[in-house]
Amino acid sequence: MMQGLYVEGETWIHRLPAGLKLLVLVFAGWGLMWVTHPAWLLLALAAVWMLFWMARVSMRGVWRRMRPLAWFLVLIGLYVAWADGWLVASAAMLRLAALVLLGLLVTLTTPLSAMMDVVTVLLHPLERLGLLRAERVSLAFGMTMRMVPELYIQWNQIREAQAARGLESHPVALIVPMLVRTLKRADDMAEAIDARVDE
Amino acid sequence: MLNKTAPMKTRDLVMVSLLTALIVVLALVPPIPVPLVPVPVTLQTLGVMLAGLVLGPGRAGLAVLLYVAMAMVGLPVLPGGRAGLAVLMGPTGGFLLGMIPGAMLTGWLSRRIRFGLEAPGRQITLNFFACLLGGVALVYAFGIPWLASVTGMGMTKAALAVLVFVPGDMVKALIAATVAYQVARHIEA
To answer: Which chain B residues have a beta carbon less than 8 Å from that of A174?
Structure first.
């Protein structure tokens, strides 16, 4: 359930440092905001497409990831066309497609561990200021990953129990027990951790 | 349930992690029908509002930051199992980032006054306005300029485009406000 989107590969794009890829993404995002002519944006989209080809990413996978967003893009395109005309709309669609695909490319070609290393580097200044500690961040991350499947099961149990009693599913009735149990669990876990570790 | 002692004790860390996990689960479970809204909605923003109300500003900010960071590094924690930088670069990227200060403002506002359990009406109203200003207005304040700049449409038009989501978010704010009150009552009982 909690698998990253990274797809293994051996191309130069896969080997680029994660930090550099993220930096390129940030600059592309910032830069393309200023480009308004569709022709230049089409060129940018073509460049991103070429990068995908170079990274040898399966296009079927890309389409599967993009489908939900694609519909949304079309909707936005229609809205912009209605509001500002087709020229602005085509620029908006091309810019969004280029940026979204570039973001997807970075995610698909960068392993989770490399991304986490970048996060650690970004957290360094906060650590220096004494605002947080890196090992606490990774502990929180690990606990969250561990608890997602548990809470998912808990949600289904509550739903099924209420359905079995013939209750109609009302969001408040569902979420109150969900949150109460989650907070009780937090209490138990905190006690268990404190009992094992003295600080 | 809500102690204000030294920053980041074990308890705080566990609370932050579990509320982050709760946001993930609420974002991933199939959309559920909500009163007054014609289509089933995902509960991601509800999770963000609840984090604010339950955890208070500091810990809520950390929980939502952790959630957004998980999505950014490529874990499928966004509604529909989406993830990654594609979402951030897309039209809704601003809404995603805005949830971090949104949860913090919700938490901060809900801690300004406490009516307590004896005044359910007033406490729920306070919770509701905290969610409305933090979890809705501030999130939109990030989301709309982002949408306007990536699409090149003006701010007014971008604001009009997202107007359809406002009723759903208002209902979610009301649900979060009620849930937080009832949970507080449960825990003190």
So the answer is: 32
Residue B24's Cβ-count burial label (10 Å; 0-12, 13-18, 19+) is: buried
Which CATH architecture best describes the domain B10-188? Orthogonal Bundle (1.10)
Looking at A38-170, list the stretches that DSSP marks H as alpha helix, in order from N- to C-terminal side.
Answer: 38-55, 59-84, 86-109, 112-128, 134-164
C-alpha angle A192-A198-B188 in degrees, rounded to nearest 5: 45
CB of A122 within 8 Å of a chain B CB? The answer is no
The answer to whether the CB atoms of B86 and A103 lie below 8 A apart is yes
Phi-psi label, residue B116: left if phi above 0, alpha if psi -120 to 50, beta otherwise: left
Nearest to A183 by CA among A141, A145, A151: A151
Of the listed ranges A68-82, A171-185, B161-175, the one predicted with least confidence: A68-82
In the predicted structure, residue A139 carries a pLDDT above the cut 50: yes
Q: How far apart are CA B173 and CA B161, in angstroms?
A: 20
Low-confidence winner among B20-24, B45-49, B150-154 (lowest mean pLDDT)? B150-154
Structure tokens at B152: 């090149």
Closest CA to A141 of A113, A169, A105: A113
**By percentage, how much of chain A surpasses pLDDT 70?**
97
Q: What is the largest CA-CA distance in chain A?
A: 65
Contacts of B96 (CB under 8 A, 6+ apart): B68, B71, B78, B87, B88
- Burial zone of A72 (CB within 10 Å; 0-12 exposed, 13-18 middle, 19+ buried): middle
Per the CB < 8 Å rule, is A172 touching B24?
no
Segment 9-48 of chain A within 8 Å of chain B by CB: 22, 25, 29, 33, 36
Say what the ipTM of the complex is: 0.89
Angstrom distances, CA of residue B126 to CA of A176, B3, B85, B139, B177: 18, 20, 35, 18, 8
Of B43, B76, B187, the CB nearest to A183: B187
**Is the Cβ–Cβ distance between B94 and B145 less than 8 Å?**
yes
Name residues whose C-beta falls within 8 Å of residue A97's C-beta, 6 or more positions apart in sequence. Answer: A45, A73
Chain centroid to Cα B42, Å, comes to 12
